[in-house]
Amino acid sequence: MFGTLSYRKQKTIIIVSFLLIPLILLATFTYYPAIKLIYYSFTNWDGYSPEKPWVGLDNYREVFSNSDIFKVFEHNFAYFAMGIVQNIIAIYFAVVLNSRLRGRNVFRILLFLPYIMNGVAVAFMFGYVFDTTNGSLNLFLSSLGLKHLGETSWLGTEGLVNYALASTGLWRFMGYNMVIYIASLQAIPKDIYEAAKIDGAGSLQTLWKITLPNMKPVIQLNLFLTVTGALEVFDLPFVLTKGGPAGASQTYVQRVVETAFAYNNYGLASAMSVILLFFVVIVLAVQQLVLSRGGNK
Amino acid sequence: MHSSKFRIQDLIKYLTLLIGVFVVLFPPYVVIINAFKSRDEFNSSSSMSLPHNFLNFDNFNVVFERGGLLSGFGNILIIIVVSLALNILFGTMVAYVLGRFDFKLKPIVFGAYLVATIIPSITTQVATFGIIKSLGLYNTMGAPIVLYIGADVIQIILYLQFIRNIPYDLDENAMVEGASLFKIYRSIIFPLLTPATATLIILKTISIYNDMYIPYLYMPKQSLGVVTTVLMRFQGVNTADWNLICAAILVILLPTVILYFFLQRYIFEGVTSGAVK
């Protein structure tokens, strides 16, 4: 029956019917929440009562004047710092695994392995690794003769806990960056290297003058992913330390979730979310700017 | 002299690779050896020592019986199958329309998917929560399913790349034979997208299986626990019994690890095509 219609009519029907549900889903669960979020951020809604009293910019004032809220970003900084280290290690391993090497496929498979592991299971696994008295890390350090270091409370010390958690993130995501870097290395034409060899360039020189410049766009992409990733950290500290000790490892998103669902302060939580969204959009805008400029050169 | 220099370089390469592999495998190794220890054995021995008996599956029995892990696996399986079936269906439909037809609103539709990627869902969860509640989906499997169904821009780009490589002659020939456009989608486009679909199914299965945020937020009901929330609850009740927790961790890690070892080619392809593009 449908087949007897002209292709013009069929085309219209297909376009409308095939896009209808997907676009409704996109609107309902991506755009509508974003708009609602902005609206809530101007109210002090408690999450259940029917009236949502308008408070104007009060929530935003609160976020910017309450130094407690912004201080949380200091905890997120650890994830950014470790993310940089993670990218350096990933580039190193990518370059190593891109050279002619026996067993490089096995190494690639093993180094990528943590990425596919369940995040909650990984968090508890590291809870055990970092445990002060029974933890395998401290036992390992002690067995190396580092007695003093082997008594560290990795997750219980204020200055350490975020770096311990962020290093778990490094453990989990380094392989992901590495695989992307390997793909970008394989896209570099081989004849450039041949030419460099003929010109007598050493391997370090080749790395600096050819490999890294060619990887630049991908490195930039990964660094921006690191920044947005660091801004959005949630599950690791939430599962492993519940933000402790005494809030020392609470991240921004965790703070948002707590403000909304534990203190029923949806208005303030929405304002915090909008600010985070704003930061992410700025980072992405800068990324687009940097990437497109790099492309024009 | 030349060759010895290269040997030192290789030595450094292998040494660093082995350190990397050691760091990767050390935490799972500790979990494995402790998952097979009884409580007494665990308390009396070092956490680095091997278990007396690698066939001691008592901890695993406890995990399945007391932890309700079986229903956790069942629930996540239902969620994965239903949301992926619909996700693939809608994803291919959108890609077919965007890849084969020209129409006025096409740039807007594509732009809508593109802009959506800059809104991280974790930031809008406070508002999404209210929507899920008002739809009556809170504390049902419907909540994660509707949230996982939506196609993302990377998926659509992947499909569009494949569609561009399907010769338009195939469509035209079918039209000459009188096939409807729906039939062309169903019998030509959809089957020829299978390689991309396979990659997407694997990657999305892993990411849904590993997700904690959505099931934690939207399905607090005990009977709706999925592997991640079941593990969190189990850990909460048995905080001191690390041998039991290790067994639970191991059981939950295993499925994706097995999937990975068998299907790593697809996984690497998916990860790189999504990011480098």
Automatic annotation (TrEMBL), chain A:
<feature type="transmembrane region" description="Helical">
    <location>
        <begin position="77"/>
        <end position="97"/>
    </location>
</feature>
<keyword id="KW-0472">Membrane</keyword>
<dbReference type="Pfam" id="PF00528">
    <property type="entry name" value="BPD_transp_1"/>
</dbReference>
<keyword id="KW-1003">Cell membrane</keyword>
<dbReference type="GO" id="GO:0005886">
    <property type="term" value="C:plasma membrane"/>
</dbReference>
<feature type="domain" description="ABC transmembrane type-1">
    <location>
        <begin position="76"/>
        <end position="287"/>
    </location>
</feature>
<dbReference type="InterPro" id="IPR051393">
    <property type="entry name" value="ABC_transporter_permease"/>
</dbReference>
<dbReference type="InterPro" id="IPR000515">
    <property type="entry name" value="MetI-like"/>
</dbReference>
<feature type="transmembrane region" description="Helical">
    <location>
        <begin position="266"/>
        <end position="291"/>
    </location>
</feature>
<dbReference type="InterPro" id="IPR035906">
    <property type="entry name" value="MetI-like_sf"/>
</dbReference>
<comment type="similarity">
    <text>Belongs to the binding-protein-dependent transport system permease family.</text>
</comment>
<feature type="transmembrane region" description="Helical">
    <location>
        <begin position="12"/>
        <end position="32"/>
    </location>
</feature>
<keyword id="KW-0813">Transport</keyword>
<protein>
    <submittedName>
        <fullName>ABC transporter permease</fullName>
    </submittedName>
</protein>
<feature type="transmembrane region" description="Helical">
    <location>
        <begin position="109"/>
        <end position="130"/>
    </location>
</feature>
<keyword id="KW-1133">Transmembrane helix</keyword>
<keyword id="KW-0812">Transmembrane</keyword>
<dbReference type="GO" id="GO:0055085">
    <property type="term" value="P:transmembrane transport"/>
</dbReference>
